[in-house]
Design goal:
two-stranded antiparallel ribbon; about 25% strand; two-stranded antiparallel sheet; alpha+beta
Length: about 140
């Protein structure tokens, strides 16, 4: 998974309904570009101003040159959250609730001391968020 700060225009007041109040969300999406399958680019800060309202978001460059529009990123994070909730509802726990590798740790995932780690020792945040199903054992 990768985290980006994006402007969520869908959460903002409609145009011409009052002062501009940019809504910036930190979203979680797959670390991989949906077009080329390579890791997405590293986030860089972008300071912006919209009608006098200042805010900061992240920008990044994907290896294939694809531009991830903020609206698409917000939609992707909503879909990912719904899929993860369905996985937990189905009784999956830990890394299994990350949608079987969609979180970017893929096939290199191993269980180390109760934490999710890949072969490089990177921590999977979804292991902490996952729940154990009622009457079940955590996997």
């Amino acid at each position: 998974m990768i985290y980006f700060r994006v402007r969520d225009r869908f959460a903002e007041s409609p145009w011409e309904s009052g002062p501009i109040n940019p809504i910036v969300r930190t979203v979680t999406i797959s670390a991989y570009c949906p077009v080329c399958g390579e890791l997405r680019g590293e986030p860089r800060n972008l300071n912006q101003c919209d009608d006098g309202a200042h805010y900061s978001t992240d920008i990044w460059t994907n290896p294939c040159g694809r531009v991830d529009a903020y609206a698409d990123v917000v939609e992707e994070t909503t879909e990912l959250a719904a899929a993860q909730a369905a996985a937990v509802q189905a009784g999956w726990t830990g890394h299994d609730a990350c949608l079987g590798g969609e979180c970017g740790f893929g096939l290199d995932y191993i269980e180390v001391g109760g934490r999710g780690e890949d072969h490089d020792g990177a921590w999977c945040p979804h292991v902490q968020r996952a729940t154990t199903p009622a009457g079940g054992e955590a996997r």
